[in-house]
Design brief:
The chain has 293 residues and is an alpha+beta fold. The protein has one domain. The chain is built from 10 helices and 4 strands, in the order E-E-E-E-H-H-H-H-H-H-H-H-H-H. Strands 1-2-3-4 form a 4-stranded antiparallel sheet. The longest helix has 30 residues. The protein is globular, with a radius of gyration of 20 Å. The two termini are 14 Å apart.
Length: 293
């Protein structure tokens, strides 16, 4: 019996990307108002056995998400601006991924360490308190970041497509028909959302960094960078377990903060945005059904 597969994706510029067992599809509404579909098979590394190995799969999926997600964003921007015939250079793709990682690490991990070191540590002697303050600063920066980008009109539309992606996946997993009217009443929150994943990373980081005590500043900064893939891998396992046991009362309570945070990164989608998400999911399901025969 085949293992269950959990479909999911992300919002892109004027559309939605969905990942299946075999391929990735993005559905983007072009300037003419029509939906444009772009598909590509998944590289073998994202379908291999390593993707099933606990902890290690978290690193694979993180790399996959960054690579495929960035590619989908760039591709959707081309389609939305009617420049889809231009090929995306690999250097641009991976340069964008590297810049995104560097920005995220600097903002959410290096800045909190420096802030705590220069503004808090001179007045306290407890390593535990220092790490807790650093963690709370990190979470505050993340929340403030979501609030600020949520004020940008174009990002609001991306957040609406994010809501559409969640509604469609929720409906599919509930066995509902993939039709606009049948999907509208489903939640814009989902237990496997990237926003919830980041929140788990931030919480888990507090506990792991607290175990390191209070080494010199340079070593604290290095530890935040080096241990990030490990924390992300563990966070993925926690998120996976939570999503698989979401109906359990205790687990559901633990998921509430991450689900609530998704209210900042999703919006209620309109019919056209739901259509884009439905189209993308149908594309990957269709390919999976053909390959599985």
């Amino acid at each position: 019996m085949a293992k269950p597969f959990y479909y999911g994706g992300q919002a892109v510029i004027e559309g939605v990307m969905m990942r299946g067992r075999e391929n990735v599809a993005i559905s983007v509404r072009g300037p003419d108002g029509k939906l444009n579909i772009a598909k590509q098979p998944l590289p073998k590394i994202f379908k291999g056995r390593l993707r099933e190995v606990p902890v290690a799969r978290g690193v694979v999926i993180l790399i996959e998400g960054l690579g495929l997600g960035t590619q989908a964003l760039l591709r959707s921007a081309q389609i939305a601006s009617a420049e889809e015939n231009e090929r995306i250079p690999a250097s641009l793709l991976w340069g964008t991924v590297a810049a995104s990682i560097a920005f995220a690490v600097a903002l959410f991990f290096v800045v909190p360490v420096l802030t705590t070191s220069y503004l808090v540590d001179p007045y306290i002697s407890s390593a535990l308190v220092s790490n807790l303050v650093e963690g709370f600063i990190r979470i505050a920066i993340f929340v403030a970041y979501l609030v600020l980008i949520g004020l940008i009109p174009d990002i609001k539309r991306v957040f609406a497509y994010h809501g559409a992606e969640h509604k469609v996946v929720n409906a599919y997993e509930a066995g509902s028909p993939l039709e606009v009217e049948a999907i509208k009443d489903y939640s814009t929150a989902h237990a496997r959302c990237g926003t919830g994943f980041v929140f788990i990373v931030l919480i888990l980081a507090i506990f792991i960094f607290a175990l390191l005590g209070h080494p010199p500043l340079w070593l604290r900064i290095l530890s935040r960078i080096v241990l990030l893939p490990v924390i992300a891998a563990l966070a993925y396992e926690i998120m996976r377990f939570g999503a698989s046991h979401a109906k359990n009362a205790v687990v559901h309570i633990l998921l509430v903060p991450g689900l609530a945070l998704q209210a900042m990164t999703t919006r209620e989608p309109d019919d056209g945005q739901l259509e884009a998400a439905i189209s993308a999911l149908n594309q990957v399901i269709e390919v999976d059904e053909v390959v599985g025969r």
